[in-house]
Write a structure and sequence with these properties.
Elements (H helix, E strand, L loop, with lengths): L20 E8 L3 H10 L4 E6 L8 E8 L2 E8 L5 H13 L2 E8 L3 H10 L4 E10 L2 E9 L5 E10 L8 E2 L13 E8 L5 H12 L2 E6 L10 E8 L6 E8 L6 H9 L3 E8 L3 H10 L10 H4 L1 H5 L6 H7 L2 E5 L2 E7 L10 E8 L9 H15 L3
Parallel strand pairs: 1-4, 5-8, 10-13, 14-17
Antiparallel strand pairs: 1-5, 2-3, 2-9, 3-4, 6-7, 7-8, 10-14, 11-12, 12-13, 15-16, 16-17
Length: about 375
């Protein structure tokens, strides 16, 4: 296994593709109203904006939910009338509920689009302005793996609830204590042999650097294996791990995803929390299912992970994983897929210095996933 870390440059003026952070994760779903209710109750998110027939959107309905700085948008088609509506309807039919857009906030969407397309990106939408009484937003879009896109969002001249065309909306349920406050990273699965191609894409098109690399035995089990590299912008606000399957005895989690999603796409979204214990307790009580971890994992945990702010017995009770590196430690846990297809899932992560991705947990995590694959008959 090889792991590399490149220290980000502090000279942000030299960044060819500066970003402010993740703007939104946009999902195409079969029923946006029900999806919004699920993420409000189970994930504790708050609806802040809406677009639908009631305010002039005859083709789609979209619900905007937030938790701290994390923003999800759930869109479903009411009646497809344009190419965009047909794309969304076809996407749900082919892939099930999934991510269609990893939108990135940038200080200058025109400059970002010009740089990206000049360095090999496929442009999907040239820069354009949308306006309402709250100001102006500049948008553009480029293609990435599969049918996923990156919308480049410059909202520096806007103070509305989300985008023009959306109206402020009341929470769906009474707001609860925040369960997470930011998007930590978004993971993409790509086909065998394509990972390095997409790493190069982010290096060249967005000026991202390689943050971590995982290959070899430490990212494999007895039955399955994968390879992973992580690209990130200079500030580490936007981090995109990229996975591809590796040849092994049986079908890996990446193979299963690619089969049931129908191609490459976003596999999971990691959500940063300040209190993973409270978050997991609340989410379990609301019906979120998490992967199980054998008790044996915790028998020797203290010997290699050291002390954390959470007692080992609490970690054992909630099945939370720990990893430690030279910079500190992290606590993490993964949900089961949140739809019937074994595709998209979530990670809860609490960082204490470590900027890693749970390298020490890969074997335990993958074995837990394999147990679920076996139940589904997909191992």
């Amino acid at each position: 296994m090889t792991e590399t870390l490149h220290t980000p440059s502090t000279a942000r003026q030299a960044d060819p593709f500066p970003v402010k952070g993740m703007d939104a994760v946009v999902f195409a779903v079969g029923n946006a109203k029900q999806a919004a209710h699920y993420y409000s109750t189970a994930f504790g998110m708050t609806r802040v904006a809406y677009s639908g027939p009631e305010n002039g959107s005859r083709e789609t309905a979209s619900y905007v939910l937030e938790s701290g700085g994390a923003r999800f948008v759930f869109t479903s088609v009411i009646k497809a009338a344009t190419e965009h509506g047909k794309f969304l309807a076809d996407h749900v039919a082919e892939h099930g509920d999934g991510v269609v857009d990893l939108a990135i906030e940038v200080p200058d969407a025109r400059a970002a689009y010009a740089y990206a397309t000049a360095h090999g990106a496929t442009g999907l939408q040239e820069p354009y302005e949308v306006k309402d009484e709250h100001g102006t937003v500049v948008l553009a879009a480029i293609a990435t793996y599969g049918k996923t896109r990156h919308t480049l969002v410059d909202r520096s001249g806007y103070d509305g609830p989300y985008l023009p065309g959306y109206v402020a909306a009341e929470p769906i349920v009474e707001p609860v204590a925040r369960r997470f406050q930011a998007i930590d990273h978004c993971v993409g699965n790509v086909e065998l042999g394509r990972m390095n191609e997409w790493v190069d894409f982010y290096n060249n098109v967005m000026g991202f650097t390689n943050m971590k690399e995982f290959v070899g035995d430490d990212i494999a089990t007895e039955y399955s294996a994968l390879m992973s590299k992580v690209v990130a912008d200079g500030t580490r606000k936007v981090k995109f791990p990229l996975n591809e399957p590796a040849i092994a005895k049986k079908k890996s989690q990446i193979d299963e995803y690619l089969e049931f999603y129908g191609g490459p796409g976003v596999q999971h979204i990691a959500l940063a929390t300040n209190d993973i214990v409270a978050s997991v307790r609340a989410m379990r009580a609301a019906g979120v299912q998490f992967l199980d971890t054998p008790d044996s994992y915790y028998d020797t945990l203290g010997e290699w992970a050291g002390e954390t702010r959470v007692p080992v017995e609490t970690l054992r009770e909630l099945k939370i994983l720990v990893d430690r590196d030279e910079d500190g430690y992290l606590l993490q846990i993964f949900t089961k897929p949140v739809q019937d297809r074994p595709t998209v899932f979530f990670e809860m992560i609490e960082r204490h210095g470590s900027m890693g991705f749970g390298k020490g947990n890969f074997k335990a995590l993958f074995e837990a996933i394999e147990r679920e694959q076996e139940k589904r008959g997909n191992l």
